[in-house]
Design goal:
Length: 330
């Protein structure tokens, strides 16, 4: 029986990942270690909470004694590491916790895994979930990020994730520990914290409040449905090579302003306002400091080596996502 530690499983992506993992590996024991910060919510895990193979542990990935105890009690062979401080704006206001959780917390996990496995790495794997933001930014017509693109992070968030990626990969180079790093583009779907772009647009639209868009809304992001990200991580786990990085994205680049207008357009059709259009509420606000212009990610390595492909169309998944937030914010 596989024994799997998932960190940060009460957050946006981790909660979807646990649902998919338990479906796919119905004979695996899954422990979810999550501190339940503002971004972690147990209601995200309603669908799995009664699964006999699933256990929730409230705790901090930085807690050495706790992580050691969990390894001893559960004899983990696999770690999927999602736990992080993940919001760029928060990292500008208060970067310290980003360094603590994302850098020191990741170090604690990878180091405890190595110590526990005592260099017997047969059947073991450490999966580190990271972001495309570590690469810095692209100009509009630059080629997309590939795995060899040098790291040039702009925000304390992306710098802390870059540090974590380097630490994890150093355990492969130095100790031959079987690690894999995945770097994904922006995700959307249910369970995303209120503060992120898509929930904010829908919440403000429904409340009749200004819908804030940074600068002139010209920043470009590649948007991937969260389930496709989760299957991408599983593909890298099952078929990827250890010591490697795999980009995950879907060539679905949108200027922020176009994405916000598209969400407003869908809202107009599914929940029309009494008068006017939701797009009338769009308000440009002062740009984020160090705001990266464009992220675009080439995931052909993951596709070619592991057979992964995103399965969900943007139109269907965005409609599904909007429906979820309409119910949430009604
Ligand atoms: P999230 O903020 O929604 O969830 C993070 C989870 O980690 C929360 O449940 C939180 O309680 C938990 N956590 C935070 N600090 C912790 C600590 N010290 N100990 C234990 N648990 C802790 O984040 P998300 O959007 O689900 O992102 C998950 C991972 O995926 C992150 O590592 C992020 O960098 C990466 N990622 C996210 C995106 C995206 O678009 N959201 C894209 C690419 C990569």
């Amino acid at each position: 029986m596989r024994s799997i530690l998932v960190t940060g499983g009460a957050g946006f992506i981790g909660s979807h990942f646990i649902r998919i993992l338990l479906e796919k590996y119905s004979d695996a024991k899954v422990i979810n270690l999550d501190k339940l910060t503002y971004a972690g919510k147990l209601e995200n895990l309603e669908s799995v909470k009664n699964n006999k193979n699933y256990t929730f542990v409230k705790g901090d990935i930085c807690d050495e004694a706790l992580v050691k105890k969990l390894f001893q009690e559960n004899n983990f062979d696999t770690i999927f590491h999602f736990a992080a401080e993940s919001h760029v704006d928060n990292s500008i206001l208060g970067p310290k916790v980003f360094i603590e959780t994302n850098v020191l917390g990741t170090f604690n996990l990878v180091h405890q895994a190595k110590e526990f496995w005592k260099s017997d790495f047969a059947g073991k794997k450490f999966m580190h979930v990271s972001t495309d933001e570590v690469y810095g930014y692209l100009n509009e017509h630059d080629p997309m990020f590939v795995e060899e693109t040098p790291y040039e992070p702009s925000s304390p968030y992306s710098a802390s994730k870059a540090g974590a990626d380097h630490i994890v990969l150093s355990y492969f180079r130095t100790f031959k520990m079987p690690v894999v790093v995945t770097n994904c583009s922006n995700n959307y779907g249910p369970h995303q914290d209120n503060e992120k772009l898509i929930p904010t647009v829908i919440r403000k639209a429904l409340a009749g409040e200004p819908i804030p868009v940074y600068g002139k809304g010209l920043n470009i992001r590649d948007w991937l449905f969260v389930d496709d990200h989760c299957y991408g991580i599983l593909s890298a786990y099952e078929n990827g090579r250890t010591g490697e990085k795999y980009n995950i994205g879907t060539n679905n680049e949108w200027k922020n302003i176009d994405l916000v207008k598209e969400i407003c357009r869908i809202l107009d059709s599914v929940k029309p306002k009494n008068s006017g259009k939701y797009a009338d509420q769009i308000t440009f606000v002062q740009d984020r400091l160090g705001h990266d212009l464009r992220y675009g990610i080439d995931s052909s390595k993951l596709m070619n080596e592991t057979g992964w492909k995103p399965k969900n169309s943007f139109a269907d998944s965005m409609a599904f996502t909007i429906d979820y937030y309409l119910k949430k914010y009604k």
